[in-house]
């Protein structure tokens, strides 16, 4: 007999080898009809999997998030089985679930899969589904499992990695055998609504020295309306993708001959970045921050002392041997540099809080497959800051920093975010500094501050920095994922490691506490985020070009346009004149395509009345107004950060 504990705390005994399906039926017939899998002792398992040990169970139904993942895992298997039939020479990596669907990695020396093949592949998938064939769950020893995938080097490697207690679980559909992990539907007839989406290259196991495989992506749902909603979401995501918009608006590019993850900022993108940089520096200086410049290189010993070398080495570039015993490292973090600034003078309690900030360039060794436009790069400039405080200043400074963050978000009209308190995983002593008292104290302090502010948050174990807990601001990306935009981190560790002191009111030395914070993330990630949030239609104050002036006829109206341009430029407004030999309608359409906030058309009437004909982006109507009125309007638009008044 096995003892099974249910979510409500009750425990029932079942005969050995009872399946998830048997347990679901013992609860109710209606539950059994909706159930597709189970979660047993924290692991997602097949509906027909046997329970051979005591444990805790949750029944997974098709209307749950995990129920959808089971459908996606099954769809990946059906895709693999269909490709196996259509391409006899094909080899298979892993077929698994991603955030909004599934993929299967394949390799075919006779030609990889192309999107043009999707119709043929989908037809074969539909044939399999209609055939009534069922998924077989096999539990074999390693030798038997290897024999099942003989000749496929990728699946043979997966088999060897999947051995647990001498056994390997495989899933078989027709003649195709899959070694991927996950739970599957036994009956594939539920897979009626699916769509193949795209293909992409992916290194085997994400390692650039391994072979490049072809990754086939798809998605599936139990209902057509859910697929329609997902396809609409994906279309919206494509329209917001900062890589596409960045190319259309000539913001940045990455040249593979120069290096992956090393973006070039074109004049338009550089203007946006420069505006953000000037804004955040002025904002921080007004809040008591002192801005500095520090080197992007440092002796490796600095990062050994900080702990980055021990805890962060895999994300750092290899040290540069200067030939005389000195090893220099491209900095992955700015905090050790700001600690040097703090330590350069003897500090008194009267100096604290000491707020040091920098737009600090950093370098991180990201794998090629993880690099994405501006949002994931190898060289980045972080809006970084470190505040050194006395212990009794922690809560007030934390609140002050959070207020600054919220104020910045208001100026950029960022509203879709949530707060995450990120704690250590106490079991992971390799990643996190092993000091229980320090972690308990700092995590409790952070939580208390959030509770005092009355802000909603969720907690996540294992997301802390190696030296302390943090508050992360989580935002949605255009592709539907979630990433950290801003962070405030509490740190008792680095002041200890660098033996930092301040002289207290008692004349004795005391240890300060560090608060790390990044308000607008890196310039690269923040620009990518804003590009997607605004869909390239930047508010006037951020737009790389704020006004374009179009003369009806160059020979009659250009002089007036130039006079107007000079006045706008004198007021720090970014403006150009479109004097190309093109039709008026074409020029106006181009200004709309490039999402310029204001288009001014100048003809005989405007010259005669000393006015401008104004057309705002996305509006169809043009309005004639005096030059001074327009000047006041655009200056007010810029000074209010283009917010509704």
From TrEMBL:
According to the record, cofactor stoichiometry and binding are noted as: Binds 1 zinc ion per subunit.
Q: Name one GO biological process term.
A: threonyl-tRNA aminoacylation
Output the SMART domains linked to this UniProt entry: tRNA_SAD
Domain (TGS) spans 1-61
Name of one Pfam family that matches: TGS
Question: Which cofactor does the UniProt annotation name?
Answer: Zn(2+)
Per UniProt, subcellular location reads as: Cytoplasm
Q: What class of enzyme is it?
A: ligase
Q: Which family does it belong to?
A: Belongs to the class-II aminoacyl-tRNA synthetase family.
Which PANTHER family does this entry report, sorted A to Z?
THREONINE--TRNA LIGASE 1, THREONINE-TRNA LIGASE
Q: What is this protein called?
A: Threonine--tRNA ligase
């Amino acid at each position: 007999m096995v003892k099974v504990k249910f979510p409500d705390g009750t425990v029932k005994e079942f005969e050995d080898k009872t399946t998830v399906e048997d347990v679901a039926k013992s609860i109710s017939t209606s539950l059994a009809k909706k159930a597709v899998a189970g979660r047993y002792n924290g692991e997602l398992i097949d509906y027909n999997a046997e329970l051979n040990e005591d444990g805790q169970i949750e029944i997974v139904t098709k209307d749950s998030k995990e129920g959808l993942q089971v459908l996606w895992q099954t769809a990946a298997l059906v895709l693999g089985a269909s490709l196996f039939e259509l391409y006899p020479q094909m080899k298979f990596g892993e077929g698994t679930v991603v955030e909004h669907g599934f993929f299967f990695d394949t390799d075919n020396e006779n030609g990889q899969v192309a999107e043009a093949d999707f119709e043929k592949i989908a037809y074969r998938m539909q044939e399999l589904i209609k055939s009534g064939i069922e998924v077989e769950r096999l539990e074999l020893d390693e030798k038997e499992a290897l024999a099942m995938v003989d000749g496929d080097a990728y699946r043979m490697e997966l088999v060897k990695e999947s051995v647990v207690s001498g056994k390997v679980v495989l899933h078989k559909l027709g003649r195709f055998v899959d070694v991927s992990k996950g739970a599957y539907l036994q009956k594939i007839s539920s897979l009626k609504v699916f769509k193949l989406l795209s293909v992409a290259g992916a290194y085997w196991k994400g390692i650039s020295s391994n072979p490049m495989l072809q990754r086939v992506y798809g998605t599936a749902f139990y209902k057509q309306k859910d697929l329609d909603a997902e396809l609409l979401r994906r279309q919206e995501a494509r329209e917001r993708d900062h890589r596409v918009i960045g190319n259309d608006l000539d913001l940045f590019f990455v040249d593979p001959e120069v290096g992956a993850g090393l973006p070039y900022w074109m004049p338009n993108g550089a203007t946006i970045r420069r505006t953000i940089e000037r804004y955040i520096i002025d904002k921080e200086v007004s809040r008591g921050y002192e801005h500095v410049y520090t080197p992007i290189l440092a002796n490796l010993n600095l990062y050994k002392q900080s702990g980055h070398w021990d805890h962060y080495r895999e994300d750092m570039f290899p040290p540069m041997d200067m030939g005389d015993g000195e090893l220099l490292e491209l900095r992955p973090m700015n905090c050790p540099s700001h600690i040097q600034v703090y330590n350069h003078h003897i500090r008194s309690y009267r100096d604290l809080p000491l707020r040091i900030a920098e737009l600090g360039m950093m370098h991180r060794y990201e794998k090629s497959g993880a690099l994405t436009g501006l949002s994931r790069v190898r060289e980045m400039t972080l809006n970084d800051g470190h505040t050194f405080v006395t212990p009794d200043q922690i809560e007030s400074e934390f609140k002050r920093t959070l207020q600054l963050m919220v104020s910045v978000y208001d100026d950029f009209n960022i509203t879709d975010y949530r707060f995450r308190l990120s704690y250590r995983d106490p079991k992971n002593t390799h990643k996190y500094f092993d000091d229980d008292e320090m972690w308990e104290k700092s995590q409790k302090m952070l939580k208390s501050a959030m509770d005092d502010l009355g802000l909603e948050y969720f907690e996540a174990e294992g997301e802390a920095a190696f030296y302390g807990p943090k508050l992360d601001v989580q935002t949605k990306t255009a592709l539907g994922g979630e990433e950290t935009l801003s962070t405030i981190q509490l740190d008792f560790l680095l002041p200890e490691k660098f033996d930092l002191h301040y002289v207290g009111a008692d004349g004795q030395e005391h240890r300060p506490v560090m608060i790390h914070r990044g308000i607008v993330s890196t310039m690269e990630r923040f620009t990518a985020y804003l590009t997607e949030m605004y869909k390239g239609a930047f508010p006037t104050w951020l737009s790389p070009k704020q006004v374009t002036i179009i003369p009806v006829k160059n020979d009659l109206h250009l002089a007036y346009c130039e006079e107007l341009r000079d006045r706008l430029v004198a007021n720090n407004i970014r403006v150009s004149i479109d004097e190309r030999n093109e039709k008026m309608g074409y020029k106006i359409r181009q200004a709309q395509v490039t999402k310029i906030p204001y288009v001014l058309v100048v003809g005989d009437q405007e010259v005669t009345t000393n006015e401008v004909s104004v057309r705002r982006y996305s509006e169809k109507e043009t309005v004639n107004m005096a030059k001074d009125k327009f000047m006041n309007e655009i200056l007010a638009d810029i000074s209010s950060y283009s917010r509704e008044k």
